[in-house]
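Encoded backbone
================
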Amino acid sequence: LIACGAVMRPYVEANISHKSHTTIKYFLKMWSSVSETLIFIFLGVATMEGPHSWNWIFVTATVILCLVARVIGVGGLTYVINKFRIVKLTTKDQFIIAYGGLRGAIAFSLGFLLNESFEMRNIFLTAIITVIFFTVFVQGMTIKPLVELLAVKKKQEAKRSINEEIHTQFLDHLLTGIEDICGHYGHHHWKD
């Protein structure tokens, strides 16, 4: 499905209207947010209610191996991508990409779908939940200080100059007036 979507995207976008494209884009964003919210609600319920089987060695090995696999995956893929990029991803960028990933909602869903009769189900779910909590809380809370410590380039939010602000507001009011004259109530009419 992912490969199909990636291949078809340029053809679909070229053959639908701008309104349809915008509608599909925001519908899919909304649907992904709803799905993610439901999975994490389910994760919270399973964490509090589910029978857990704790094995320090298995859980620790799972967390470490997930982190190592993430680093290897990011390193390998960026090595290939850097062959074709003009602006290469630096080692710092690769480290931040590897450090900032792994939330595990899909892994949790797949683990939860394991058959109840599978004897290792509870230990798998416990390890998955631990990985999710580790990546969300430990890595999630330390990513910002780490980015600042490594001085990774961040996207610059450009402030508009006074000239740009005045011209933008002028054009918005002008387009609102044109919409009123034409009798068309669009984006600028409702914005005004």
